[in-house]
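Form 7-S
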Amino acid sequence: RGKGNADELLGPDFKGVRVSDAYSAYKNQQGPHQQCWSHPHTKLRELAYSGALEEGTREHCLMTYKEFSEIYAKLRGYIQKKFDPEKRAKQKKDLAGEILEFGKFRAKDPKKLRNVKQQFQDYTEEWLTCMDYDGMPCDNNKAERKLRHFVIKRKISFGNKSKKGHETFEVLASVLMTYWKTYKDSFFVELKGLCA
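Output:
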């Protein structure tokens, strides 16, 4: 997950827009960057329904979560429509104002909520990079969902004990996922044939 991995993956000639969370190894690469909206959305949802917070603080977090969700939904709606530079510029300006208002600290904000708001203050421009491009997503949900089962596997097994184990897992995962994508309707039948 380090910067070297990102450098190798992107290569020296990468001209696209990167979409990631605020992890510095990815965020500090050259070129335009879009902050992922799904990460703060998840954090705010967890706060809104947290049993560890006092009722008044939880209600405040729930209202903040709803406010954020409305901005997020509005942004997704804009980027799904046909790209019109003039219209997008106006929409972007309006959204920037809403983000600025959302990012203000309030007296009832718990520390975790302040941390989320701080990211919106620190990376104001990077939350709306997607508005400058046609077909640009505002989150990396698609990639996250593709990797989710490997993340769960890593958490359950605590990773691999050796470099050899890591390399073996990479090969097996590649073969299995290729079969899964190719033979979704007959995966187990095809897999049995592969192992025979």
